[in-house]
Amino acid sequence: MKFYSTNNKSEPVSFKEAVLKGIADDGGLFMPETIPSLPKEFWNNFEDYDLAEIGYNISKLFLIDEISDNNIKEIISRSISFEAPLVKLDESNYVLELFHGPTLAFKDFGARFMANTLSHLNNVKQITILVATSGDTGSAVANGFYEVEGINVVLLYPQNKVSKIQEQQLTTLDKNITALEVEGNFDDCQRLVKTAFLDEDIKNKLILSSANSINIARLIPQSFYYIFAYAQLKRKNAQIVFSVPSGNFGNLTGGLFAYKMGLPVKNFVASVNLNDVFRNYISTGNYEPKPSVKTISNAMDVGNPSNFVRLNKLFNEEYQIIKSLIKSYSFNDEQTKEAMKEVKDIYDYLIDPHGAVGYLGLKKYFEENGNNYPGIILETAHPAKFKDIVDDILKIDLPLPDELNKCMRKEKHSIIISNKFEDLKEFLLNKN
User: Fold this and answer.
1) How many domains does the chain have?
2) Catalytic pick from 16, 21, 107, 344?
3) Which residues contact 246 (CB under 8 A, 6 or more apart)?
């Protein structure tokens, strides 16, 4: 299978080239030329498959031309070694827990898959992975690539705009992991990464790739758990509604991949915080990026989502089709806090601020459309990753899982840089 650039100014490339490059030479993002449907025999038996088996069946659709069947199975077994349980709140509301990986966030799916895939494909001397993160991506990538031979990881995160626990996860690894603390917001970090990929001096000296959701290897595994959620629901042929807390829109795009492969989705709900560029697009048809604002659901603080262009390409930029499939609602911090309380009071379930936005989005969808279909909220991170916020809102003392306790005792190591590209360029050229 070939992968084309969303800017349509570069020749299509192989999967290996797409993964290694991260971004196309023309600055676009890579997309598969087609999204293949899962075969009928898969859907006849999918309820009996575990998460790894679903991941294998999806992966071979995209990778079998370049990676052998046995190696695909090995990549999946190394990457997907944890569960994604579906928790029933009531007859209409379910939560898909995506925080059972090593860094307690959904980014573990994509980061570990990409790390194992890139390790298999890499036959060059040294690769530098550049990653912009608003929180969980960085720690998942850092852990996924930690001590992987031939790969250095440089994480860019916005100063004072991630939680303390997230920052500890970003800044307490050594060896091949470096954390850059950027004096700016997430959009600045993302801009710096994209600019670095297009800089000729850097490209001449370094082999760059990215492990953000701009890398196609991050997106493919994010389709796995949508189909696994459906399998756990045990309602064959029933249409479902997914409410996806959305920031850079990689998670939602993974769901759209699953939809294109045959998953019977009635609607997706793109649930956003005050960073409501996509909600405004759905309402008006106009996409107008704007500076991001800080919220308690910080991983969604994105003012110019990278994967918007992919979402558009999936539907040939036909606005009416997108609008009919994807609904979008925006919520502020006070509404998010009240939702966290409501979920605890009604269901005795702890939900993090991002999942709470997803809960509100599904609730709003049901109010407007009726709860005629089961609704699944994607819970993207363990509530303990936002302990200060959760404790304050719910008036509890949430214990930290062992993984986070160990991390909190480590020493922070970061390098502070400005949000000017010249500073990042100097660091990259002098470091390597």
Assistant:
1) 1
2) 107
3) 252, 270, 271, 272, 278, 300, 305, 328
